[in-house]
Amino acid sequence: MSDAAQVRRQLAGEALSLADIAALRDDVSTDEIIPLPAMVHFDATLGRYPLTGYTAGGERPIGVDAIRRAGIEVIVAGARYGKGSSREHAVVAERSAGVRLVIACIRRGEAISLDELLAGRDRACRRPARSRRGAPDWRPPGRCG
Question: What domains are there in the chain, each with its CATH number?
């Protein structure tokens, strides 16, 4: 969602229709999911801060504890949700706030080769994945984007 007022309405408990939402926002980075100042925590305290860096319409409509207070359990996002370097903190923050499921498009339904998926990963990550080399390329279900 790119409209800050809509985000606030949803956090207040209003159910929004697909027509209200119009389009999901793409390219939500881990910096928006868990901003740098909150990353000094390494425990469930992160659950106070998920999406506090999220920008909609030039505003940051999600405050501290807002996701937890609103009881948000499922996040539906556009393409490339969670891109960035603080992936571990982002997941801990969302989960600690009560989020149980994130649905996001990664690509437009094309297969992702194992080589592409592992590109730039360290050896410790590549080795277990390659030991299952018999598996076909991964394809997200349905069509994203």
Answer: 4-106 (3.20.19.10), 111-137 (no CATH)
